[in-house]
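Notes from the 1:1 (GR / supervisor)

We went over the backlog. Supervisor wanted to see one worked example end to end before approving the batch request, so GR pasted a single chain during the call. The sequence is below; no edits were made to it. Supervisor asked that the structure be written out right there so they could see what the output format looks like.
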Amino acid sequence: MLRKRWRTVTIAMVVIVLVGGGYAYYARTRQAQAAVEPQLQTATVRTGSIVVSATGSGTLIAARTIDLGFRTSEQVSEVLVEVGDHVEEGEVLAKVDDTSARIDLVQAELNLQSLTGAQAIADAQAALADAQAELKDATYKWQVNQPGHRATSETLDYAQAQLDIAQSQFESAQENYDGQAWRSSDDPSRVAAASQLGTARTAYYTALGNLNWYTGKPTEIEEAQLEAAVAQAEATVASAQAYLHELTGNSTAEDADASPSQALLQLRQAKLSVESAETELEATQIVAPIPGTVTSLDLIVGGESGEGSAISLADLSQPTLNVYLDESDLTMVAVGNEADVVFDAYPDLTLTGQVTEVYPELVTFEGVSAVQIIIELDANDPALPAQLPVGLSATVDVISARATNALLVSVDALRELSAGQYGVFVLEDGQLKLRTVEVGLMDLTSAEIVSGLEEGEIVSTGVVETGQ
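Structure output shown during the call:
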């Protein structure tokens, strides 16, 4: 009896164990199945700022650098600056011995004075007066030789009368001679008649020539000679005027067209000699052509100046950076773009600048093709450090576009429907609904929503699967 009851209890316990184990297995299986079901990920549409930029590395450079030196090797007499000094435009930086240059200038000035004194001016005035008189005479000769200008009507009448008288006397002398023809050739009467005839003939042809000249015109050769005489006289006057004007400092534009006289050429050469001597004297000094800072100096008083660069001057008034960007960022860079600059020496300070130049060709930087640009910092920025030595390294973000107070969503929420067309799944009443949106700026994590969403709405960014 006891053995039977024990068997019954044992069977019941086995059944209970089997049933309990089966339930536990079922429960674990359900939990595992629930664990692998995907979980919905969401994000809230928010308001914020988005910046699209390209990052590169830059180095602070001088806005302008000029190397200065002496043209010839001379002994240095003065060095008036040191490295780091700020100089103004026109400031003398160094000098060499100028004794020889000063002597040359004095000699050139004395020579010029001898050519421009009162006597030289008086001689030039006299030469001009003579040239003007010659021109007047040549012009008169040309005028009186032109048809209709050789004689007045009174002169023509007088010449005609003289011809008539000469013709009458010629005819009478001819008749008288013909009446003596029967006489011998040595007969005194015939000889006298022949002499009278010769005189009358000469008088007739002289009167005829005079009348013909008064009523005629010059030959082509004569006309050319007359015109050449006038032209030569005009050229002489122009040269004399140009010389006198040069002497008195009253040169005109017309003087440039005049053929220079020997005296004028000599005067101009003397002026050039003075200018050359002045240039040589100026060359004994190094003068700052721009305001700037002395960055290098290779001169010692008493030493030889040499003919190379002796002083380097840099314009540091406008902080400027030479920046390199990856060539893939080329489309994101343009003149006028803003830039954020952080120098390695000032890691907690962000300065602003602007792109002023984009080089037209790619360059090789650190072994790769790069875009080279120039950025100028805001020189009036109160945060600009006083110490910004050339050569400082910086990280530069060139701002391609920027939006503030914009509606933003995670880029994971965007679904590209077609090229340039996007949609977003919005959670409404527990259900996901696809809504078309207009997208503006986009970076690696966020996208600007121009239209289609409102701040605070919940959007799906996808699902995440979790394993056992």
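Supervisor's comment: The mean pLDDT is 86.
Batch request approved.
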